[in-house]
Amino acid sequence: MHKRVKKAVFPAGGLGTRFLPATKASPKEMLPIVDKPMIQYAIEEAITCNIEEFIIITGKYKRAIEDHFDSAYELEENLKKTDKKKLLEEITRLNHINFAYIRQKAALGLGHAILCARPFVDDEPFAVLLSDDVIEPEETLLLDMVGLYEKLGCSILALEEVPVTEIHKYGVIGGIASEDGIYKINDLIEKPTKEKAPSNLAIIGRYILTPEIFGILEKLTPGRGGEIQLTDALRELLKKQSIYGYIFKGKRYDAGDKFGYLKATINFALKNPEVSEPFTQYLQDIAQMLKNKRHNEDRKSVNYSIPLKDNII
Ligand code: UTP
To answer: Rounded to two decimals, what is the model's pTM?
Structure first.
């Protein structure tokens, strides 16, 4: 019987340059999707997998994350007095959870951020959730991966089929299908060109890792972009242990990027009971407006000039 996955690491020490200037002095992970910060979606996802210990890797200008998950006495008292029960319930729902925070002193890469969690994880298997990869709350990706780990006892990476034009943004795997949707990985490359990519199966932001990854990360020299790359460590781990990939077919948004963030916001707003109705109407109005605009532009581009002979008075 393999050890149970009880710990989860949430790397949040990155610079978030794709969201500057918003992320100059505030964490990207605190950007809200409608009314909840991205990192809270990830924490709630881990809670559904019976994770018991939550380890957040923070960095400079990331203190808002700690404040967010702390109890807020004055605000709670105020909501009690004004009888705002629903809001009170919402802001105290996670108060029973204990978070551990570790500060990554410099943003030296995802691999380095994970290495920072070593003193808390020790020799146990653990989950890693990148909160800017937002997954619809009804999906069971991480739960399925935990189940697979319990069966196989080795590291499991979440994979997604991506278009060839997107391959250069991801860590990409080569592997052999072992069961439906499960791959035994035999190759890993970080951000390959489409010519060098072993497949179009990209690693997305959910992992179950065995603790042997720490010894490898510790010895790793900086790779692509001068960062300690998790993909490089996984390639080393592959020489010692099997690694499996699990294909995710549900909805995921790369909310670390502006377009993905906007898509997540729109889709979550469409499901939010408070705003879904007026927001749906608003989107329909915009769609109609864009359609009319396109129609007018098409008309303008048709040559309506009056034939010369009719133009003579
Ligand atoms: P990203 O690759 O999205 O990098 O990190 P980033 O720095 O956050 O954003 P950009 O690319 O500059 O816009 C993926 C996840 O890994 C964490 C990030 O906080 C994010 O959750 N990370 C990245 C760290 O914790 N430390 C690092 O040194 C780098």
So the answer is: 0.93
